[in-house]
């Protein structure tokens, strides 16, 4: 019996090496925002320990990463690409068989809207709607003018400053007593939510998901009563020269995992993982809140996620691969 063992071990080793060479070296874009960094680190760990890839992270950002994947075939994977930012180029890359849309990295899409604290809606259910908010405008204290109400918009220079200002006009919020407050920065905007929430005060403003803030503070997205008018949103709401804006909810922003065609072709099993790997905003909000509270980086947040949320990530993987990842933890 013993004389067979080296042959069995050698066969197993050859099988593992074949699997590894099939996947080979894989480069993953580690984008410069937290949710994308968490995803990149999760992908690296799963590819390395589940699929025997030689996975490495390289710095990335939306436009340069997408362009490089189309033109140079590198990196192999962009875990979280907000695809509207370069949709025409990506679609052309797919047509030319250079890249693939592997799946949705954020299942709900990127989410934008006007938000109020949940405790306000519990007290005044009608404040889940913009008409209810305007009815209770006096509750939203202006930081400088006691006779006016505060609507916190995007910091100056952000694209969402345009859409928020147009929707403010479309819903006649000035006539209801609201003034636009520029928070000055992302930190100023999130800080205004934290301050109001911890004091149990009213707050109204623009925000987006997934974010740590919406993981820490339970907020309700205000219903404009309009549904989503995509044509209006694209051609007027988001345009600085929009003369007569109409109400529309923000449409979800598509957020995809993009891979190169070469990676998908040489490592079909690993590629299959990306067609199934996706986060719900609420789950990512919770991870980002933990990340902020613990001043953690993407790698530390990855370990937290894999250890605390096995019911999520194990659904993405075949049972034997999931077991390999679990053993590696």
Automatic annotation (TrEMBL):
InterPro entries found in the cross-reference section: ABC_Gly_betaine_transp_sub-bd
Keyword entries, A-Z: Signal
Annotated signal sequence range: 1-20
One Pfam family in the UniProt entry: OpuAC
Domain ABC-type glycine betaine transport system substrate-binding: from-to ranges: 25-308
SUPFAM superfamilies (alphabetical): Periplasmic binding protein-like II
Protein name in the entry: ABC transporter substrate-binding protein
Lineage: Bacteria, Pseudomonadati, Pseudomonadota, Gammaproteobacteria, Vibrionales
């Amino acid at each position: 019996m013993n004389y067979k063992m080296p042959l069995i071990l050698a066969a197993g080793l050859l099988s593992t090496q074949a699997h590894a060479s099939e996947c080979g070296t894989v480069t993953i874009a580690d984008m410069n925002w937290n949710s994308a960094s968490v995803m990149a680190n999760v992908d690296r760990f799963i590819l390395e320990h589940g699929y025997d890839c030689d996975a490495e992270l390289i710095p990335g950002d939306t436009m340069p990463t997408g362009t490089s994947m189309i033109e140079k075939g590198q990196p192999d994977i962009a875990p979280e690409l907000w695809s509207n930012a370069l949709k025409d180029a990506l679609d052309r890359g797919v047509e030319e068989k250079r890249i693939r849309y592997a799946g949705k990295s954020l299942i709900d899409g990127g989410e934008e809207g006007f938000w109020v604290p949940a405790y306000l809606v519990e007290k005044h259910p009608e404040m889940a709607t913009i008409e209810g908010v305007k009815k209770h405008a006096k509750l939203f204290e202006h930081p400088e003018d006691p006779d006016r109400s505060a609507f916190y918009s995007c910091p100056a220079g952000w694209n969402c400053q345009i859409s928020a200002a147009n929707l403010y006009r479309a819903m006649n919020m000035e006539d209801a007593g609201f003034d636009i407050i520029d928070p000055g920065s992302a930190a100023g905007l999130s800080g205004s939510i934290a301050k109001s929430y911890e004091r149990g005060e009213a707050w109204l403003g623009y925000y987006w998901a997934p974010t740590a803030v919406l993981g820490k503070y339970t907020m309700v997205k205000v219903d404009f009563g309009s549904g989503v008018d995509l044509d209006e949103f694209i051609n007027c709401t988001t345009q600085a020269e929009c003369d007569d804006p109409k109400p529309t909810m923000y449409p979800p922003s598509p957020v995809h995992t993009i891979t190169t065609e070469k990676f998908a072709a040489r490592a079909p099993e690993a590629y299959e993982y990306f067609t199934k790997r996706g986060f719900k905003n609420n789950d990512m909000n919770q991870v980002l809140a933990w990340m902020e509270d613990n001043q953690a980086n993407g790698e530390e947040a990855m370990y937290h996620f894999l250890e605390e949320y096995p019911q999520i990530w194990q659904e993405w993987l075949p049972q034997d691969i999931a077991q390999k990842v679990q053993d590696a933890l």
